């Protein structure tokens, strides 16, 4: 098909709804004004029914897509501790979480439109074939129209593709990349970026060219349909605002990937 | 419309899926062969995702209607302790539970078809207008086509009717009734019935005539679209089998009330 | 015994350790520099083992007395929802909490030195004889040398005295009092005081004279061995610092009530 | 010191108190009549305060030693799922559990007298040096007089010895052993023994000679101060009774290892 080239487009996603009961985390309202996709905690690592409802309604009112941010069942550890959950239990834990959030999304007039994996389960499903397959099995069972948002090259996205699910990649605005296009481990220099101007410039460049400069100064290919910022880090809101502003100035369309 | 009179019809309901993790309670499989409606625990007083999935699939395979048995959030107390939950939180707790179970019902090829309130929340919503209204608000928000199954004369069913929900009454096969058609309190003689033959005879009579003999020997009007037996009491399965057999012999149709 | 009159003495207490997992609440370190007694959450409404350990060690390093702040088992509701817990379960829930905290107090080189009741359980044991007796039974069983810190006139302190426990009363620095020496309900004007200077002046006067001005302008007798400020309200630290400074200037000794 | 040889002595231990709320598991009362040491669940994988109290009182009334059976925080998985808990959190989780149980042991007139590690944490601390050291650090901090009961050759017992703790080994009555004196994996033939007569004969022989016949028919050295039977397996009570009876007939003294 000929015609003018499509305008570049990217999604901005962030973790939301990660308080519990009396406890709060992050500035959900400020972030909802910036992002196009909200990864909403479903109650297993964070999030209670009041929070799920409030975030879903706020997301819908701003036309932000709701995604289920599924996790191990571990409130005390915020889902950040790898667990040897058997495949059947993991599949059912994920179905439970997607479905619970989907209830609030529907009450708010929308639906869960994608799934993202949180914390230790996300890290583990980069390599763990069994747990990756178990998460994918949950999405297939619940609604095979839901795409999975995840790390490029992960077992999770590979299993998603093999199962016929949408597999959407994300880049991390506030993280350095190695020469092999992996994230610089948090224990090493250059892992975390703090300058909103630099971060915004990098993201515009990645969207326009599919390239980033690695921590070693080498150009690496990083192609992502979505950009993630962590909402609970200091300066997160400012950084995300800078990224959003720079993208708009570069005439990049900010749009949720999920239909 | 003229024609032969409709055959009498009644539903048999029972609480199911009330284990948690390694722990089991009741004989779900035996009860599913007897009942027409399963009140499935949703995870707040009992039930974990593995159990929800298993019970939903077993219910669907036997053509038993799945109902959401919603509760206070109280695993340690099995939902049997009245709690002063504010209306907003209660509404959202109920939405969360219905939605989570509905996910497994849909995975199994069906849907949640009604809502029943468990334990202390059920007792409290007999009189507590605020909590009754909060539960009803949850059903209205989630799906106003879902009927509520509950106690005749309860605030819960009154609020359900006022909100335009279906309000379905139940009788208790294994409980004695007072001359005012209330349940004999558990602390008094005649509260619990144990003889399967007598229980079965009473239930057939109630379905055919709308009448029961009270603990005082007086005839009282008890009209119920559904009969409940508690699955975790000793002899529950035998009693329910006797009721079912007697109803079938009396040519009563056993059929779920929910469409 | 003759001699110079004893210097006036008072205790300053505050709720601490009320985060959970990743979530924080209040500024424990700042408050520990001000108070003489720390009501430490024990894990049922807030507090996890890491927090218990950290707060106990910080309290011991500042010579602040550690008290067990016991609650209903209700993380989702922060212990602020009244629950119909039976007496046996409540007694055992309280023993469990005191004992768990006592472990960390001993690891830090001290002991739990008193018990305070949190939230809805505190409100309920003002009037509920059964629950008040159940809490007292727990302290008697665990260690009858532990005093209970509570509201003047409460069933809780009455049962404590009858059981031979120490019963220590507290006043609330940031709350208005009625002409009957009760707290002004939060829904009414004058319930909450915000001016650190006024609050400090009132507390000095209460300690020196046993009197406070009520919201109606009437003098009322309020005698309390301990003064409580809520650490999670905005300005709490500033207000408590003002109270502490004013007490020291008035040559009141700030000292824990528990031996 | 000369004199007649000491009579052979062994301890019998079993996991107890592993219900939660309404749910029960195993026959605690029957097992308490057989064993000399009770590994009591502390609330993290099973056990609630009512159960802890009941089991402690029943153990004391039968002169059975109370041990803290500590676990990962995982009620839904019964502590059977390995978790990447950091060392600090694991140490504090273990202190919390020991202390909570110790409260009930003292209320019952005794004390926690040893520590045993449950489920996945037990399996993991066979090899995981960090988690083994973290558990040992908890016991050292809480009370270095408490011995650890565990698997011969485990990292856990090695760290315990290095830290100066008592390290007590156990053998499994109902399990087959390899020619290297390890347990036959559950997936292989000969892993589980079912014949009470054979099991009893094997245990008497192990106590008298320090030897067992392996699954390959080879004699292997197995020296253990305590014998464990799993209380939740079918026939557990009968098997343990047979072991006890055979030991008594062989004039082996059954006595708790903990002072």
Task: Report strand % of chain A.
Answer: 15-25%
Q: What CATH architecture label of chain A applies?
A: Alpha-Beta Barrel
Oligomeric form: homotetramer
Number of domains of chain A: 1
The biggest sheet of chain A, with number of strands, parallel, antiparallel or mixed sense and barrel status, is: 7 strands, parallel, barrel
Helix content of chain A: 25-40%
Computed Rg of chain A: 17 Å
From N to C, what is the helix and strand string of chain A? EHEHEHEHHEHEHEEEHE
Total E-strand runs of chain A: 10
Biggest chain-to-chain interface with counts: A-B, 23 and 23 residues
**Widest sheet, order of strands of chain A:** 1-2-3-4-5-6-9
Residue-averaged pLDDT of chain A, rounded?
Answer: 95
Q: Superfamily at the CATH H level of chain A?
A: Glycoside hydrolase/deacetylase
Q: Which regions of chain A contain 5 or more consecutive residues with pLDDT less than 50?
A: none
Textual characterization of the structure:
The structure is a homotetramer of 259-residue chains. By secondary structure, the first copy, chain A, is an alpha/beta fold. The first copy, chain A, has one domain (9-254): TIM Barrel (Alpha-Beta Barrel). Helix content of chain A is 37%, strand content 17%. Chain A has helices at 28-32, 49-61, 87-107, 119-124, 129-142, 155-162, 196-209, 236-249, and strands at residues 9-16, 37-41, 65-70, 112-117, 148-150, 167-172, 211-213, 219-221, 226-228, 253-254. In chain A, a hairpin with a 5-residue loop joins strand 7 and strand 8. In chain A, helix 3 (87-107) packs parallel to helix 5 and helix 7 (196-209) packs across helix 8. Chains in contact: A-B, A-C, A-D, B-C, B-D, C-D. Chains A and B meet through helix 2 and helix 3 of A and helix 2 and helix 3 of B.
């Amino acid at each position: 098909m000929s015609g003018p080239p499509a305008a570049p487009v990217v999604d901005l996603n962030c973790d939301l709804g990660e308080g519990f009961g009396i406890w709060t985390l992050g500035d959900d309202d400020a972030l909802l004004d910036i992002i196009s996709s909200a990864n909403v905690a479903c109650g297993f690592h964070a999030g209670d029914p009041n929070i799920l409802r409030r975030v879903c309604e706020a997301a819908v009112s701003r036309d932000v897509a709701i995604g289920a941010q599924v996790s191990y069942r571990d409130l005390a550890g915020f889902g950040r501790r790898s667990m040897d959950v058997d495949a059947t239990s993991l599949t059912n834990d994920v179905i439970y979480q997607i479905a619970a959030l989907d209830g609030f999304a529907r009450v708010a007039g929308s639906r869960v439109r994608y799934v993202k994996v949180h914390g230790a389960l996300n890290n583990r499903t980069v390599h763990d074939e069994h747990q990756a397959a178990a998460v994918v099995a949950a999405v297939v069972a619940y609604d095979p129209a839901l795409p999975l948002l995840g790390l490029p090259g992960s077992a999770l996205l590979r299993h998603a593709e093999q199962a016929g699910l949408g597999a959407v990649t994300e880049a991390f605005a506030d993280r350095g990349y190695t020469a092999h296009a992996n994230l610089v481990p948090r224990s090493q220099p250059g892992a975390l970026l703090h300058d909103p101007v630099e971060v915004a410039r990098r993201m515009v460049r990645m969207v326009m060219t599919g390239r980033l400069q690695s921590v070693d100064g080498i150009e690496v290919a990083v192609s992502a349909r979505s950009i993630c910022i962590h909402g609970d880090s200091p300066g997160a809101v400012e950084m995300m605002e800078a990224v959003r502003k720079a993208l708009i100035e570069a005439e990049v369309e900010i749009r949720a990937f999920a239909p």
